[in-house]
Amino acid sequence: MSTIALYTFGLLDPAMEPAALADLAGRGDEIYSAGDHAPGFLGRAEEGYDGDAVHQPGEDFGPWGSYVLPLGLTDLAGHDPHAHIATLSLWRDVGSARLFVYSGLHREALQLRYDWFLKGSWPGHVLWSVEDGSVPRWSDGVANLEALALDGSSARRFTFGSQWGRT
User: Fold this and answer.
1) Which of 61, 56, 100, 108 has its CA nearest to residue 81?
2) Locate the DUF3291 domain: which residues (predicted)?
3) How far is 74 from 122, CA to CA, in rounded Å?
4) Distance in angstroms (rounded) separating the CA atoms of residues 44 and 35
5) Quick check: 41 and 112 in contact, CB under 8 A?
6) Does the predicted model carry a pTM greater than 0.85?
7) How many angstroms separate the CA atoms of 166 and 88, rounded?
8) Which residues contact 104 (CB under 8 A, 6 or more apart)?
9) Which CATH code of 3.40.50.2000, 3.30.70.100, 3.40.50.2300, 1.25.40.10 fits the domain covering 2-166?
């Protein structure tokens, strides 16, 4: 058996209106709280830390590893990769992660994503299998997202929309 890791990455739109930024910030805590109680949720990198929403490369997340950014994405169109939001979470299975992402508060926020984030050529998320009892690391998420952007989906790394993400 294995569990499923989910890494998300989005660049904040530098032209975002202050009201939209306030809306995004206001929804964040509610969405995290809903995720904490979602069926199949096993944990996220922010657990047990100071709750600061701004993370710096190299910041230590214990078993989740050091915080890193996907600087290997080739099409950031000159945008600052530090103006971003990234998440790393662990789920019992793909279905549990999908149910959370595409329902409730997260679904509502997802429908507004282009009010907050740039639409890039890179994928906004990646999933991969993690051995039971293991914790995914930030570097795993970045490596899988970069490989997905470069080589596409496979049985090792995939999106919800790929054939491997529909199981």
Assistant:
1) 56
2) 5-162
3) 8
4) 9
5) no
6) yes
7) 20
8) 34
9) 3.30.70.100
Q: Name, in order, each residue with C-beta under 8 angstroms of 103's C-beta and a sequence gap of 6 or more.
A: none
**Residue owning tokens 């047990």:** 48
Q: Which of 161, 152, 126, 143 is nearest to 5 (CA)?
A: 126
Which pLDDT belongs to residue 47? 52
pLDDT in tens, the chain (167 residues): 689 999 999 888 888 888 888 888 888 888 888 888 999 999 999 754 455 556 778 888 999 999 988 877 766 666 666 678 889 999 999 999 999 999 988 888 888 888 888 887 888 999 999 999 999 999 999 999 999 999 999 999 999 988 776 65
Tell me the helix, strand and coil percentages in the chain, rounded to 5. Answer: 35, 20, 45
